[in-house]
Amino acid sequence: MQTTRRRDTATELDLRRALHANGLRFRVDRQVLPSSRRRADIVFVAAKTVVFVDGCFWHYCPRHRSFPKANAAWWADKLEENRRRDIHTNRTLREAGWHVERVWEHEETAAAAIRITKIVRERLRRRRSP
Question: Which domains, and CATH codes, for the chain?
Answer without folding.
Answer: 10-124 (3.40.960.10)
